[in-house]
Amino acid sequence: MSTKINVRSPFYLHLVEPSPPLPDFDCTVAGLAGFAVDNQGIITLPSPAVGVIDSISSDDGDFSNNKFPTESTDTSRTIKIKLLIPTGYANTSDIFFECPVTATQQGTSSSVVLPTVCSGGPSANGSISSKSLSVGGSSIDVALAGFFTNETTYDFSNLNPNLVTVALSGSTLTLSPNVIAGSTTVYAIARDNNFPATCEKTQSIAVSVSDSTTAFSCTEPTNPALQGGSITQQGAITKPSSLGSVGTIRTTSGDPSTNITSYPANTGTAERNVDLFFDITVPSGYSNATAIVECEARLVQKGTSAPEFTCKLAGLTGQSIARNGSIFTGTAFRGTVKTPASSTPFPTVDTDTSRTVNFPVTIPSGYQNAGSDISGGCDVPLIQPATVSICGSNNFYLSTPKTSLLGHCSDVYSANKLVTSTESSLVGLAQSQICEGGVAFDGKGLYYGVFTSSAAAAIGAIGRSYYIIQIDSSGIVIDTAIANCDALGGGSNVLV
After folding, report:
1. pLDDT above 50: residue 172
2. In the chain, what are the domains?
3. Number of alpha carbons in the 13 Å side-chain half-sphere of residue 368
């Protein structure tokens, strides 16, 4: 994505790549949008503005196999989205962050979500048997046409793409194993041509992926088996994620007497490393399925001191220097940018000149020394543009204006109104700037005869060609032509 910003002289903008909206990755930064649950309970995952979805869960008691059951009336649904935290955030080392999203599932009998509820549509024909895949093995095709009636189109829902890849070609659904073992449920969806006025029909497909040659360990099939996790300054522990179920936590390997659910608060000012041991129940599909494997993870526990505020976090933007040397303060993403201590305008320059301006920035709350200014301020490299008048210095002379291009043909006119332009010739006047007295000339969109020197009887029915320009209200020449009127003023032609 790119952004175009039009900036008229007389100054240059200082533009920088925006910093992340917040120092920590959180649900506001993630910006999840588009979560929906249809009347069959099929989930449409939201799209994050920042981050990547890893997995989902729900505390709703009727949530099962990544799907909600149908409901006769509108029902509020909430799922928790676990996202991979991108680089560049203060909590990137946590790897994951969880955000809840809520939507209303439309009822099958009555609803305010849509004006009308669906009716009719395809029906199921039997059921689709479970499918077994092997890591490194072949794909399996499912011919959906044999499992529905009265359908015309197909779709699917796969909320575990890390485990299995699903593709649809016509009525053929293809299931392909990835590199990890486990189980999930894929949903085949059938619709007719009147959907959504008619209802869709779903069929569940239980999919298992096995890797019987691999024993799950702290390094297989992923290294490490534990990813993410965090511990607050107060000692609250968020367990790391794993392919298996993460259970008991202890401070000493193999010693049940050190089992914990939280950790002592860090009363020191600096952060510290905390090494903990977690029991993982091996998931299905591995040679040691259901076994308990203990793995170590290092979590970082913050201290009591607030984080340091830096110029990078401030994210200064919009600073500039005008042609006359004046300094524009701009804004900051965080904190408050202030007028430089030395705000005296720079002297004007004949060529574009590099400058470095130091801007004081007041530290916002939540950081060390909040309310004071960043020590040493923030240096911003800027360019002061050369002093070149937009009006130029080349003289031209205008006639009385007319409302049409050939309006001067009824008489003879002098060209005696002095104006200046950035262009040096009549031929080059198109799109140039016209000024009078050092300011833009308000041409009001009218047509003017133009001459390179003050001249009497130079425009109109003079028996020879002459230049005509149309000037807008900001002094810009928006049209040019060469006009020629006969000596009696009875006819004319224009040479464009």
Report:
1. yes
2. 11-17+308-384 (no CATH), 27-105 (no CATH), 123-210 (2.60.40.10), 230-301 (no CATH), 394-495 (no CATH)
3. 12
